[in-house]
Amino acid sequence: MATLKGPGEAMEYDGSHLRIGILHARWNSKIVDTLVDGAKKALVSSGVKTENIEIQSVPGSYELPFAAQRMYSASQTQSSTAGNALVSAATDLLASTSTSDLTTTAAPTASKSSSALSQPLDALITIGVLIKGETMHFEYIADAVSHGLMRVQLDSGVPLVFGLLTVLNEEQGMARAGIGEKGGHNHGEDWGKAAVELGVKRNGWA
Ligand code: DLZ
């Protein structure tokens, strides 16, 4: 039965050509790790290859915006380095091959040859769990992280999936990771699907 809450029915998107990052905080790791697993599971079921899922962690949620910005920027640098290596391999090959040989010569490969995609991240899922304590700490971090992540995605042009749970207690967090006493839905799965949809749409709109 369709529920009122949740992202609703969506098309299935093919993630087989995408490179997706998962960046997570290590605070509240039992909940966070389950959410990360849910996100990974959804990425793989949408066709994203495991070698194209890059996972990084930071101590707490407050670190997510800065690390997301650096992670995306590093992926751009890696992809341009891989592109340069390919151009340089092609140039070397052309220099050492007579024109008549070209049709029978294997295509050049960059030195980092694997099936992993050498392209910037198409989308990045940021995951953290903030649990309210006795002070105002929670409010400040939740506000700063939300605004920081929005700023990073609009400034960089890479879609960030907002996997920050801001919960009043541990039970609420467990329920949203699907490990509560009454079960619950693992929101990480929704975030994985959102990353694939946004990665595909981002490329379509580029
Ligand atoms: C300090 C702190 C506290 C009290 N609670 C959480 C939390 O519930 N979830 C979370 O992800 N991080 C928490 N942190 C750590 C901060 O996010 C941050 O890592 C530190 O303030 C260092 O910058």
UniProtKB/TrEMBL annotation:
Catalytic activity: (2S)-2-hydroxy-3-oxobutyl phosphate + 5-amino-6-(D-ribitylamino)uracil = 6,7-dimethyl-8-(1-D-ribityl)lumazine + phosphate + 2 H2O + H(+)
EC main group: transferase
TM spans (from-to): none
Pfam families named among the record's database cross-references: DMRL_synthase (PF00885)
GO CC annotation, single: riboflavin synthase complex
A biological process term (GO) from this entry: riboflavin biosynthetic process
CDD domains named among the record's database cross-references: Lumazine_synthase-I
InterPro entries: LS, LS/RS, LS/RS_sf
Entry keywords, A to Z: Riboflavin biosynthesis, Transferase
Presence of the UniProt keyword Transferase in the record: yes
Source taxon at top rank: Eukaryota
UniProt-recorded Gene Ontology molecular function terms: 6,7-dimethyl-8-ribityllumazine synthase activity
Pathway where it operates: Cofactor biosynthesis; riboflavin biosynthesis; riboflavin from 2-hydroxy-3-oxobutyl phosphate and 5-amino-6-(D-ribitylamino)uracil: step 1/2
Enzyme Commission code(s) on record: 2.5.1.78
HAMAP family xrefs: Lumazine_synth
Protein task: Catalyzes the formation of 6,7-dimethyl-8-ribityllumazine by condensation of 5-amino-6-(D-ribitylamino)uracil with 3,4-dihydroxy-2-butanone 4-phosphate. This is the penultimate step in the biosynthesis of riboflavin.
Protein name: 6,7-dimethyl-8-ribityllumazine synthase
